[in-house]
Amino acid sequence: MVSGRPxxxxxxxxxxGALLERPGPSGVALALDNAVASTLAFSDGFTANGTVRLRGxxxxxxxxxxxxILNGPPDGHGPSLVALxxxxxxxxxxxxxxxxAAVDLRGAQVSxxxxxxxxxxxxxxxxxxxxGSVTMDESAGQRDSVELVPEGRP
Length: 154
Description:
Blueprint: E1 2-3, E2 8-9, E3 13-14, E4 19-20, E5 28-31, E6 36-37, E7 40-41, E8 47-48, E9 51-53, E10 58-64, E11 69-70, E12 81-82, E13 87-92, E14 103-104, E15 109-115, E16 124-125, E17 130-136
């Protein structure tokens, strides 16, 4: 498990193409809870065989998972991505394939979200998730539209 709590990363963290294979006892492969970073780059073949946890992280610029693989814990008990209360300017979730387990974005705030048909697993937690705009990766093909209903509206 890779852990950097609470990390101050003014130059960012660049893990392009990295392979995280051995999660800790709780199934977490990467824990950056409450980290403060300019950029978090988990892209270009980045693979996590365990939960990527970014609870309360604040990313002033880019958080990218472009072309990454989020496998979740090997035992299947736990989410692929946990980003509760995370704040980020630009989030790229154009993964290489859908995450193998849940994605939890409850309470997260994102200015720009880039996604594709491969961004979302069957289970997604979005309570309190706030975003400014969403764009879809056109090269990933079209998907059925998803209506996001604001909290308090039927």
